[in-house]
Amino acid sequence: MTTTHDDDAGSPRSLGTPAPTVMHPSTELVLLGCALLLVYGVASPVVPASVLVLSCLGAVFSARVRFARWLAALVVLAGPMLVMVGIIQGLFYPGEAVTVLWQAGPAALTVEGLAVAAQLWLRVAAMIALCALLAFASDASRVFDGLVGLRLPLSVAYICATAMTLVPLIRRRTSQALDSRAARGWATDRWAVRVCLLPGILAGLLTTSLVQLDQRHDALVQRGFGRHRHPTPARTYREGTGERALRWAAPVLSVALVIASLTDVLPLPSASDLLEVLRG
Q1: How far apart are CA 82 and CA 242, in angstroms?
Q2: Can you say whether the dihedral through the CA atoms of 25, 206, 198, 79 is positive or negative?
Q3: 19, 98, 147, 250 - which has most CB atoms within 10 Å?
């Protein structure tokens, strides 16, 4: 793998145009892992809510992410989860010692059920928001370089980077398949027809994509992939001592915060506490 002199965003840098200021991909992956550790390690909705807000701000101000696209992904992936946990936990919480806010037959809106639903949804939404932000701001090449920079095995780096190419590949092939069906007389502009066609199209496309990725891997192996444990990155990335220190300090600080929360050294309000405050 040869080194090119593209900028960090992935496009060739024109003469006299400054490169955008972005983090090293290894730093982005470390921060992603630390944020997910805090989201699932600290038993308070304050952390996932904060991560969700910061992800939203990152999508708004990022030069590499379209906010509408990021928001659509968040709504599509996290919206059904909100409805499900709201119904299951919010209306049918199985506990006995509960505070009922509203009741109609077997359905009862309880503080405890809402607390569990809010905690579950905020965690899932924060995870989706973070992963979507990284996916839209990066590409497979940056992810591969970042994982290799963290000294992960090449097989793991290859699988993770390849997974990022599957979704856009299937989406593009699906669009082409629908266009070919439309040329044969199918009314693909109707949702009912698309729903009937998609299962067969996606099954074939998934198989074809997996075969294509396997052939790509064989081609890379024949060209020497895996012979060196630390191959040369596909691009050049600028990083200073501060970023290297951040990659060490962020995991240590995250683990310390989780331990402090579990041992009540860092008391944070629970979802039930916040709901009681809102009830006033």
Answers
A1: 39
A2: negative
A3: 147
